[in-house]
Batch of 2 targets.
Target 1
Amino acid sequence: MATREQSLTEIRRDLHRYPEEGWTEFRTTALVAEELDERGFDLHLGPDAVDPEERLGVPDEERLDAALERARELGSPEEYLERMEGVTGLVAVKRYGDGPVVSVRVDMDALARDEAEDDDHRPAREGFASEHPGEMHACGHDGHTAIGLGIARELDEHGGFDGTLKLFFQPAEEGGRGGKPMSETTHLDDVDHMLALHLGLGEETGTVVAGYDRPLSNAKLDVTFHGEPAHAGGQPHAGRNAAQVLGAAIQNLYAIPRHGDGKTRVNVGQVRSPNAQNVISERAEFRIEVRGETADLNEYMLGKARTVVEHAAGMHECEHETSLYGKTTTFECDESMVDAVSEAAEGVDSVTDVKRRKEFGGSEDASYLIRRVQENGGDATYVGVGASNVAGHHTAYFDIDEDALEVGVDVTCETIRSL
Amino acid sequence: MATREQSLTEIRRDLHRYPEEGWTEFRTTALVAEELDERGFDLHLGPDAVDPEERLGVPDEERLDAALERARELGSPEEYLERMEGVTGLVAVKRYGDGPVVSVRVDMDALARDEAEDDDHRPAREGFASEHPGEMHACGHDGHTAIGLGIARELDEHGGFDGTLKLFFQPAEEGGRGGKPMSETTHLDDVDHMLALHLGLGEETGTVVAGYDRPLSNAKLDVTFHGEPAHAGGQPHAGRNAAQVLGAAIQNLYAIPRHGDGKTRVNVGQVRSPNAQNVISERAEFRIEVRGETADLNEYMLGKARTVVEHAAGMHECEHETSLYGKTTTFECDESMVDAVSEAAEGVDSVTDVKRRKEFGGSEDASYLIRRVQENGGDATYVGVGASNVAGHHTAYFDIDEDALEVGVDVTCETIRSL
Amino acid sequence: MATREQSLTEIRRDLHRYPEEGWTEFRTTALVAEELDERGFDLHLGPDAVDPEERLGVPDEERLDAALERARELGSPEEYLERMEGVTGLVAVKRYGDGPVVSVRVDMDALARDEAEDDDHRPAREGFASEHPGEMHACGHDGHTAIGLGIARELDEHGGFDGTLKLFFQPAEEGGRGGKPMSETTHLDDVDHMLALHLGLGEETGTVVAGYDRPLSNAKLDVTFHGEPAHAGGQPHAGRNAAQVLGAAIQNLYAIPRHGDGKTRVNVGQVRSPNAQNVISERAEFRIEVRGETADLNEYMLGKARTVVEHAAGMHECEHETSLYGKTTTFECDESMVDAVSEAAEGVDSVTDVKRRKEFGGSEDASYLIRRVQENGGDATYVGVGASNVAGHHTAYFDIDEDALEVGVDVTCETIRSL
Amino acid sequence: MATREQSLTEIRRDLHRYPEEGWTEFRTTALVAEELDERGFDLHLGPDAVDPEERLGVPDEERLDAALERARELGSPEEYLERMEGVTGLVAVKRYGDGPVVSVRVDMDALARDEAEDDDHRPAREGFASEHPGEMHACGHDGHTAIGLGIARELDEHGGFDGTLKLFFQPAEEGGRGGKPMSETTHLDDVDHMLALHLGLGEETGTVVAGYDRPLSNAKLDVTFHGEPAHAGGQPHAGRNAAQVLGAAIQNLYAIPRHGDGKTRVNVGQVRSPNAQNVISERAEFRIEVRGETADLNEYMLGKARTVVEHAAGMHECEHETSLYGKTTTFECDESMVDAVSEAAEGVDSVTDVKRRKEFGGSEDASYLIRRVQENGGDATYVGVGASNVAGHHTAYFDIDEDALEVGVDVTCETIRSL
């Protein structure tokens, strides 16, 4: 747990071994907090780092408590756990000079999935695969967290820069649950420049993408339908059939009209009606994701989806509940920051290829932080750091080339110094 | 028009030639009224025979006016047309003795369909096919009306009976539109016995069925959906799509849960969305029929159908209107009346076969009159008079064997005298 | 395991404590076999009692092996386990005299559900609740098996009767999986009279129903749809969406046309598409149950359901697999046997109320055995033995009044002796 | 009919008064042919101008015959009517010099709609509104045809140009039915430059748009479903319900997955199931339009639509027929031609505003001719000629500012001379 003695690779492997899903990153937050505290950063933990009211897709109390207890058992310093007050996330600030406030945002959460256990998978082969069943760092956030620490180390140990560094260690990026609550604090108010970064994204180690554009906005809605059971043979009319609601809702969700102003998406997952086939379904559920090329198009889809869900339930006299699980918006990287990163990257030895901009295929809730900075007059970019992934993001065999950690640190620090 | 000189067959052919759809039976009503007036019956015409407020499926004013004008042009006596006040239907009463009040119900309306014009069809061959395009007596109501007159003639000319005769000439049986409004008047309050009758029903001439049971209750609902047009290529999101409502509604109407207590039915017809395929549909419509083994089951289906329609519209943000087009209920014939008709029929020479009871396959709004009589303590039956039909009811080649007219008159009068 | 020393109540409680789901009744079969073997019955075990090829809804090998191993560990005699050759079920025969062959059918399987564990539930309170998580005797088959043994004891120990006794210990009644394969053997060929019996069915202890009629025929179909995953944001067109198939299939299954000839039913349960909401569903599944008032109506529904499933898959370019999980047919009890049971029951002291016949609400695969006996010229009935259930069949708190066990034995034996 | 004496405005008004829908432009074709014949053009009429086998959405024989007869009655020269052999369309060629082959494409067909008859509508007020009920020039093709003649006149009477003029008078543009068959002839093989033009398109008179880009590809599919009628009350199972097919098809058509590669569209119109609500539908139909940002995306949608239609029918055991009614593809205008038109337009006095390029909102089957020219190495553009429309294209009050006719002629001739 004495991370200062550990290399970035060692830290990354430690995090990989003890992955924590969104809003349960107690150990991860504490681990980061401990080193940055020792380095003299001002720490803003938990409710001081994210607006608790704005959190989306928070697990239930029991789950949170169990995760906290697990962190405790794994030796996380009680001091930081307490300061979190049950809320994960960290903003760490250090002033090195009078110049601009530069922020870096990294995310910390793992995915809800099992990790491959066979020898084809390096983490398993080399003994640092997940020890938490059902959780896995399959999107590189372990590396992002390590890079965040690496940036602090690099600047701290090599003279800082003429300005203030603000590190945002964001919880719950998966699902788009942590970006908005982190953007709703005051920490971004004075930020002049922001870099968010991501490992992998299909690029080889040595490649840096200085800016990504136009991720689709998205929103995730969890829906439960409540009906009334009845014997399907004797009293088919006496129930209120939540499985029929599923049928009507699925059909009409995919049939939400396309929009003339741009791309829209809708998808349904985790569909479930557990009733026996001789009983009218009393409960059914699914999870929806909608997307739009713009925030407006995303709202269009979300509104339509809610309408379909409401009337599918009404059609079969069922009740329904919805809960917004996560949400992201879109962004555009500023040309000024793309310039800065490109130029900095050209000067880093381990960088072999610099791409100025690419379209961002998926969705990202760094978008909320980026837009907040831009609204306040700052500029921002989202940087891709190639990591030669051997398997796709979110899959059981996902891994990163750890050489990419230094690339990420160096490009970021070089950029920060140049601003 | 001097019907007293005409045989029943001549009258039936006259009516067949000038068929009038439901609520437009101006000429038919006037024709009947004229003879019964001459015979000294008390006449209750139009709003005095049916409750105008309870009428279902009434054509628009323009259509009613045109039909009235047509009746005028065909020589209907102005006196009766005026007394109808735009409402068809007639109750005619004559007291012959102190005994029970016996009523007979016949219906008068034609169907909305073209009649066959080729020589295979006797009415065409012998020159009495419909002269009203789009209207045809394809269910024998021309014969029923003639039988109603025949009963009046027979009793009037052969000594009456010890009681009071009430003849109900019902409009708009097709669709189940006239029975309920006729049952909502006071004319049934003092009725001791009622016979309703129908020609054909799959029986040969000479066969009499003394009672039918358990027609399905039904209801007909006309539905219109209002959306918003938009160009399907450029602005697919800008419309509100009434054609999509059709899809959702049709699928979910047929999926209304079966009922544990008995038979239910639902069907959709006259579906229409006239939009060009490159325009989002701004208007769609269909007509629904539901049925139930009991009045309650029919209400169950009607309620569910309304719910589906409402939420199909809501799902696609369209408005909707519904209009109840027609409605029937179920009935059971009284054993006492089945006995009376059976015995009477046995004594009629032209009757070769007497069946006591059969199940009634379709729906009938005589049900409302029958139930009203039964509620008031009277008894009632629905009698089938075989007529050797050469083609199915409601088809272009439907015709009746006119020998059945006398059978109908004789069996009914014989029964009346026996009560 | 020395059941001869145990009372019927003790045996029932032993079976209740170690419930075995359909096709895994290894311990139950062996337990019955052991006592009947000692009593000199000819035993037909496993493949000699049911046609293995005709079995429906058989669990996978792993599950069967585990259940067999469990029976072994619980001390089931190896001899009988071996003779079963992996197939449960038993026909036991003993000849007492030259008279008719009388058969009794009881079922042995438990349900796939957890049992209540609190003190409100007598089996929990008195220590004989299920020790097999996920399995419970919640339909009284533990009592049926005990009654089967009780009949053997009673006849064996009190002079037999003038004829041959054939006891059918049927596996896998739940879901309708064992009746057909048991009826496809030759054991029913010479049966003159058959009684099947069931405890509870809403009747108080002391009540006997001498015959049930017209259970709905049913069939259960398990369906899996195979699609192709794709990223719902980037490549929505690249997948083949099994969740969309669910929508189309559910909507159209419930919309299978009602049938003019009688009752039909359809219901969908255990709906599941486990894909994440940002991935096009690659796999979805559900389980269907159809029913019909007759075997033909059941086939109508099953055929239509297969058609809907096939085309719902085809519509979204998915593949599908179906597997018939269970099937029952309908039956009518013979008046002769209803007479015999009624009269016998009147003579049994513990019987307080004898009902001749009731309609059977649910479905039963004893139907296949009953019909086979009737086809061969024998007569049969299905007898209800009241058991004052404190909770509904198939629920976690289901229990039987054990006094009903003797009632069942006495009524059956009295009937057998009277035939 | 002596068009040489008529001004372009007179010709346009004559055509406006006698509009002819797609594939019935007999009078229009003959009128054009007559003047161009007199001017010494080589004429390719009917099957010599379009490939008859490739025609889409051709009206039935009866309709074609009636239109031909109508043209005859209106005085069209028999010579040209005969040469058409029942197929409309004309390619007219005249060689003025050795230079390039320049082609101009105009379309001739009217829309299937009624024209406004009140005085707010200039054609009605000034007496040249449509005399053909149900047909109207509501998209300016009357003007296009006049401009085509005007170009011939201008060049013919003012010295021609150094090259060959090929005029394509295309039939059946509405619905996208005539472009493809005209492009499948050899007439385009030697074309070096092509201009297609359209009046209006939202621009004021005096504005010229030198190029349009990326119209959506589209396809129109007419679909008929054949079921089996049955009485919905008595025999609901006996039919095969084409109305249910509508429900399943509509729902699933709109739910065709969005495509990751670009815009797609689908819409359903002219939905119809004419069955009475108490009869299972034996016939239903609708017309579909799909679109795609590219020809491939359009094919994707068309393929998916066909799959949905097939399986919606199969799901309810109905048959179906489909007929491709029309089809267009997309195009890009060549920079060289946009330059040429822009420069020429700048030099025309009546032109007040020149726009280089706009996106094309709708769909256009000139696309097939344009792409054919480009495939053969030629260049092409699609030119908009502003016409200050007082009402939207395709509406009852559509009209053009006739001053735009000369603008169209002048810009085109100026361009031709410059090539």
Note: Residues 218-328 of chain B form a domain with the Alpha-Beta Plaits fold (CATH 3.30.70.360).
Target 2
Amino acid sequence: MIKELIEAGDFAEARRALGDMNPVDVAGELEKTEHADAVRVFRMLPKDTAAEVFAYLDSDAQQGIIEKIKDHEINGIVEEMFLDDAVDFIEEMPASVVKRVLANLPADKRDIINQFLKYPENSAGSIMTIEYISLKERLTVREAFDKIRGEGIDSETIYTCYVTDSERRLLGDVSVRTLLLAQPDARVSDIMNTNVVFAVTTDDREKLAGEFRKYGLLAMPVADNENRIVGIVTVDDIMTVQEEEATEDFELMAALSPSDDPYLKTSVIAMTKNRLPWLMLLMLSATFTGAIISGFEASLLALPALAAFIPMLMDTGGNAGSQSSTLIIRGMALDEVAPSDVLRVLWKELRVSALCGVALAVVNFARIFIMNRDVMLAATVSISLLLTVVLSKTVGCLLPLGAKKLKLDPAVMASPVITTIVDAGALLLFFAIAKALIGV
Amino acid sequence: MIKELIEAGDFAEARRALGDMNPVDVAGELEKTEHADAVRVFRMLPKDTAAEVFAYLDSDAQQGIIEKIKDHEINGIVEEMFLDDAVDFIEEMPASVVKRVLANLPADKRDIINQFLKYPENSAGSIMTIEYISLKERLTVREAFDKIRGEGIDSETIYTCYVTDSERRLLGDVSVRTLLLAQPDARVSDIMNTNVVFAVTTDDREKLAGEFRKYGLLAMPVADNENRIVGIVTVDDIMTVQEEEATEDFELMAALSPSDDPYLKTSVIAMTKNRLPWLMLLMLSATFTGAIISGFEASLLALPALAAFIPMLMDTGGNAGSQSSTLIIRGMALDEVAPSDVLRVLWKELRVSALCGVALAVVNFARIFIMNRDVMLAATVSISLLLTVVLSKTVGCLLPLGAKKLKLDPAVMASPVITTIVDAGALLLFFAIAKALIGV
């Protein structure tokens, strides 16, 4: 709609329409607009809205605007942005843009941005921001509200305030709800909660997401190694973390190198790079499975009908294994299963795989017997199938648990890897049983 | 720790320890305690804490306590719980417990719970609660704070208040932050935000999660068909929704019927029921693939070496296809890809699959040529591989898009289904090319 107004040259109406819109939606409109027009629209925005809209833009649109505006305008935007948004923005820009942006900032802002850029990827430090409200414990509720009114407009959240001593060490937290329900003369120290769930800068952001879910938090303070509070993480960012971590697992589990870029914005070359190494590795692994078939060429020549059961055995093994590995990988991601549960998991998988395996084997036996009238062939395939299902589910549960134990990402031990391993096992079982029962 | 104190009979110390703990952690301790002891500990808790702790318990522990306490105690707990928690609790209980709980409630509470139980699963109505703060537009900021102080203790969130007319129709919302920063004499109507993101009771909860993420919301009002506000959804519940929806997709994509129960708490029978139907269906489908091999038995007898390449072709096809389907399924779950993007997706997949396919084919050709010194065999396998990768990625992207278009869950069109389809295609291609190039 903004796009249409701009194209029609109706800037006055465009400005009015922008005023009524949510900054998130303004950003969405700007992303759909040509860079040159986007800059014109962007300049119509009031200064504080501009910074917020800028934070919501994707990095292409951010770069498009940055390259067209003046140095002092860049400075104005970055100064108005929350620190976490500024850091996210700078991380995505090419070196030349980063240099220009940092050169225009006052030294103290530049220093703190440089410090935040150094936190390891996926750490609590990398997603925290510094705009929080800290209160001294001696304050009364009335004084606390004065402080909140004074600083509230520049804070990412005002709803949880952190009580600190003179060294910035965390003593407790107090919510605006508690403050509102307390007497104006009460002391913060008397109403604060001292049992605060907090993180340290090096904690994994996935761990934080788990604690936000568990305790229903809106924000969490982050402390440095000396227990001083250095920032907070807010629930909106944690929702993004939760979504990104799930996406990463989906990708790893499908033999893809994870990428943060949306599908339609990822180049063909980047996509090929994310996919090809895994396909190559798994292709070469599968040649070992092929070697097993070569090794039993004599059996196949003696009884060519055996070959027709290979796809069914391989696919069922792969599916049975990936069912188990998926449940274990997801269970570990949600802290419902741990490597120490290995015996309980194994016992459960053995029973489930026995039930599934027997049911599949019986149906399979009936089908082959009806179609081929060959009891020994039906028995060979069905026993192989039962053992394949048990093997697959055992491998499928043990590999992710083992990966976690070795501090690897369990999501790598999913369908593609399991299938490759289980295929070989299924064929070895199949030919061995054929030899024993049919003598080929 | 509570468990140890209880077992040692030190109830005084246990009560003290409970007082310092987060209700979430108290619930965690109770779940680890024997039912009989859990009831003793539960009765030590102050009334309002008891209801909160009860809401955090898993349904086994809830049932254990409900079955051991008196009717008036049940009433006390359910009356103190937020409505969404009470509804979640009742939904998980067996019929006899539900009957007893509802019989003990006052008629108005029973009516509203019955009404909430009727909202469709996974709808906005099924996750909303009614404890929100509504303000009239004529109120001043000072009067609004009086209302918040009066109702705040019983509201799920006080940080966003909803401005309604006399018919409960939504006029706007106002945050406590805005109220705190406004003049005490200002009117709510002058400072409220009228551009409110809201849901209707029948909206899919996954859509709400997307909007919470997009707009960084803490709460969202839910309206009925006559535009009257009937409840709110809060961000803590949305985090759970986001996690459950991802888990559901992980499970569907691994050919599992979704289940909300944690792995270790799911019975062997329930697990078998979630897994067996899919394995059975896919096993029977894979017999068609076997039939293709039977159809080309003459080719295999003429050149038995062909059989050794079947696992590699099938696995690579399956992996290539599930890479594409995973990216498309996840992209659609995050609203980054839509069925209308089909041509852009197809064009991208064709190019990526050509690049991946050529690279894999070249490596494969070299390996076979070096090991077998047979150019025509190497060419047959490599051309089949290239075409299989292109076919797999085409099928892998089109099936989930088609499922979405038909309003089915795209996550069903993942690795297992793709593999089954692609296996057949890969083998048909392989034998056709072998016939053309080698003449077998």
Note: Residues 342-372 of chain B form the longest helix (31 residues).
